[in-house]
Amino acid sequence: MIKLDISIALFIYLFCTVIVTFALWIWMERKTRFTAFKIGRKNVWQCSVCKYVYLGQKDEDFARCPRCKSINKKGVRNL
């Protein structure tokens, strides 16, 4: 029979818990990192008046510039 001291058993238990927690954290971060910042070119607008570049909604035909408040039409001067 293997003799196991209580301090060694506690160390092994805590070490395994930390390793599993760290592995789950890395796996979850890897899964969410690349899906969070996908921006299509249809969402990027450039104002026809002040030339400010900003993000708009996906299915908009018109977008209001946040800087000069002018209305821009889809297909005209958007990136």
Task: Please describe what this structure looks like.
This protein has 79 residues and is of the alpha+beta class. The protein has 2 domains: 1-37; 41-73. It is 35% helix and 15% strand. The protein is built from 1 helix and 4 strands, in the order αββββ. Strand 3 and strand 4 form a beta hairpin. It starts with 5 loop residues before the first helix and ends in a 6-residue tail after the last strand.
Calculate the mean pLDDT score and round it: 82
> Structural class, please?
alpha+beta
Give the ordered list of helices and strands. Answer: HEEEE
- The beta-strand count equals 4
The helix content is 25-40%
Question: How is the topology of this model organized?
Answer:
Elements: H1 6-33, E1 44-46, E2 53-55, E3 62-64, E4 71-73
Antiparallel strand pairs: 1-2, 3-4
Please give a handful of descriptors for the protein shown.
two-stranded antiparallel ribbon; 35% helix; 4 strands; alpha+beta; rod-shaped; two-stranded antiparallel sheet; 79 residues
Please provide a brief summary of the model:
The protein contains one helix and four strands. With 79 residues, the protein is α+β, with helices and mostly antiparallel strands.
